[in-house]
Amino acid sequence: MKVKEIRIIINASCDEIFEFTVEPTNTPKWIEGAGEETIDTKQILIGTKYSNDIGTWEVTDYDKDVFFELTNKETGYSCSYSYRRIDDNTTELTYFESMEDGSELTEPMKEEHFEKLKILLEN
């Protein structure tokens, strides 16, 4: 399986980064082209569906402040975020994405989105 991985150190707490990245109204603030994003539940849980101009993803794994995974059931695309606390104000965020069938990613996430996320959270 071909997997893309992006790692970044952000000077913010795990919970702050987690809350920002799972909040659908924040997605267009750091991922260019995502457009407005909504979810179909009040509380984010396994099974919650995120939708935007690009498509719909279902939360397939969720461990608050530790791990978050989304899967597009139609395309077989999967992405996950892993949050590792370095200290109270420093977190390593690791992003993985892949296609379930092992094929190449057609539009992989850009590292510049994570640089923008870092700037937003550190300011």
How is the topology of this model organized?
Elements: E1 3-10, H1 14-22, H2 27-30, E2 38-39, E3 49-51, E4 56-63, E5 67-72, E6 77-87, E7 90-99, H3 111-122
Description:
The protein has three helices and seven strands. The radius of gyration is 14 Å and the shape is globular. The model has no long low-confidence stretch (mean pLDDT 94). The longest helix is centred in the C-terminal third of the chain and has 12 residues, at 111-122. The protein has one domain (3-122): START domain (Alpha-D-Glucose-1,6-Bisphosphate, Chain A, domain 4), CATH 3.30.530. A seven-stranded antiparallel β-sheet has the order 1-7-6-5-4-3-2, with helices on one face. Strand 6 and strand 7 form a beta hairpin. By secondary structure, it is of the alpha+beta class.
